[in-house]
Amino acid sequence: MSRDVLAAVVTTPGRAPELQTVSLDDPRPGEVLVRLAATGICATDLHFSHDVSRPSVLGHEGAGHVEEWGEGVSRFAVGDAVIASFARCGTCLRCRTGEPAYCREFDRLNFTGGRADGSSTITVDGAGAYAHFLGQSSFATHMLVRESSLVALPAGVDPAAVAPYGCGLMTGAGAVLNVLKPGPADTVAVFGAGTVGLAAVMAAAAAGAREVVVVDLSTERLALAKELGATRTVLPEELAATLAEVAPDGVDHAVESTGVGRVLHTAVESLNRRGTCAVVGIGAETTISLDWRTVLNGRTVTGVISGSSLPDVAIPSLLALAEAGRFPAEKLMQSFAFADVAEAWEHTRSGAVVKAVLTF
What we know:
27% helix, alpha/beta, 2 domains, Quinone Oxidoreductase, Chain A, domain 1, single chain, six-stranded parallel β-sheet, seven-stranded mixed β-sheet
């Protein structure tokens, strides 16, 4: 069985999605049907939109209310406010040891366009669409999500206000809090002031890092970074002089969120001899190049997926920080009606907004 829902469908590579009625399956065992209250638009959605070969429903920062579920679901009731994250198998070593972002089946469950058995959750014009994207496909009024991908929101939290915590905010903050773990004597440099980079800024400030240096091409983004806790904000050409002042031996930690190879190179070279660079950006480049002497000097370069987060722990923790005024993520968000998805998509692509949030 299935039901008709309204979805934003990408039909042409790289083009904004268009609204159309699609068929969404009824929930199967272990699946939950969620009516969306809001979903963020992430740079990853734009990135994957260029590779579509069939109608695709993207979106992976969904939050809303539980409507129905399949056999075996036990954690939720009708009306529960929830936020979704990525899909994971739940049985591999990484899942069982609290590192689901590195699930052995991560790519198969999140990027193949369907369930684990290959079936699509969404039908467009009678054919299976590329869907179940990052375990969600939240660019629709409803989505099917594995029970294990859902996090119950604390009482009183409006799902329409927190959707980006399921990916972009958790990714940037987690890179700092779960991987780099700066102390009060540490310096942190953040390269790129998009959602992920600015989440890293807020997390570094909340962690009490001595200096939080933010590098970006946009003076507007740098001004926002200052509001969010950055101690220094610089254009790329100003970086060397700033580091000579605040960290002459190099910074302790760096977060690279742009996905640009030359920026990663700069981020790694900005480290001190035992520093660590967390790589969270995704871009068009498929390879990166580093001088072996740069890495041999005790530096660490580590890739980070979803902030190395356990969503059931990370999301409530970040919401608690926000409630305490120490993670002002609302300053990043701009809401758009779902009907205006094309406008929100373009504003995201151009950088006119930091985090566009579609509301239903």
